[in-house]
Design brief:
By secondary structure, this protein is an alpha+beta fold. The protein has one domain. It contains six helices and nine strands; from the N terminus they run H-E-E-E-E-E-E-E-H-H-H-E-E-H-H. The strands form three sheets. A five-stranded antiparallel β-sheet has the order 3-5-4-8-9. The chain has a two-stranded antiparallel ribbon with strand order 1-2. Strands 6-7 form a two-stranded antiparallel ribbon. The relative contact order is 0.23. The C terminus is likely disordered. The structure holds iron/sulfur cluster (2 copies). One iron/sulfur cluster binds next to loops.
């Protein structure tokens, strides 16, 4: 792996205008904690992740612990200034971006410029302290929910609109393509 890169947001707005991501688990929208779903238009909110097991014939998760919006472009993104209109109160996943330990990978333009191919990228920790903190908090929440509700993990892809049980190999494929960074997050 090369020398760690200093992260610098280009304020291009790409991430705020591309909230739906194609992943190995299906198309996934922006990750929202239960308390954050009220920040997006309610008609666009659907489940994202579930845990535990309920039902006999129609198996489904016991609890929904994360939600997503079906919007591609965030309603809080200001086209003219390229700024977030709720920056101080933005969702945890936005605070953590471009880290992707806990959410669907989004293609940060800054990171894309650093790596033309699939080579690993590592970021200088001092430049992503706030992002790491937000990502760790979200990751801890997911770990807590998954240990409280034993059983399979569930995902609700935006395009399929039905619960899908996730296996270990699905999860392995889903891991972000920034292994250096991920290993730091998971330490
Ligand atoms: S809430 Fe703000 S930071 Fe998050 S996607 Fe919307 S505009 Fe971007
Ligand atoms: S895509 Fe990356 S560089 Fe562009 S606004 Fe988002 S975080 Fe900043």
């Amino acid at each position: 792996m090369g020398t760690p890169i200093r992260f610098k947001c280009l304020k291009c707005g790409y991430c705020c205008a591309h909230l739906i991501n194609e992943t190995s688990l299906g198309k996934l929208g922006i990750f929202l904690l239960p308390q954050e779903r009220g920040w997006f238009p309610q008609e666009t909110i659907i489940p994202l992740y579930g845990a535990g097991l309920k039902g006999k014939r129609r198996l489904r998760p016991q609890v929904i612990y994360a939600f997503q919006s079906t919007l591609k472009r965030c309603p809080w993104f200001d086209e003219r200034s390229h700024l977030c209109l709720i920056y101080e109160h933005r969702p945890s996943v936005c605070r953590a971006y471009p880290l992707s330990g806990t959410c669907a990978t989004r293609e940060c333009r800054f990171l894309a410029m650093q790596s033309q191919d699939d080579e690993e990228i590592s970021l200088e920790i001092s430049t992503i302290k706030e992002e790491l903190k937000a990502d760790r908090e979200t990751l801890n929440y997911i770990i807590a929910m998954r240990s409280k509700y034993k059983g399979p993990m569930w995902v609700y892809p935006n395009d399929e609109k039905k619960w899908k049980m996730v296996t270990g190999s699905d999860l392995n494929q889903y891991l972000p393509k920034i292994p250096g960074l991920l290993s730091q997050i998971l330490k």
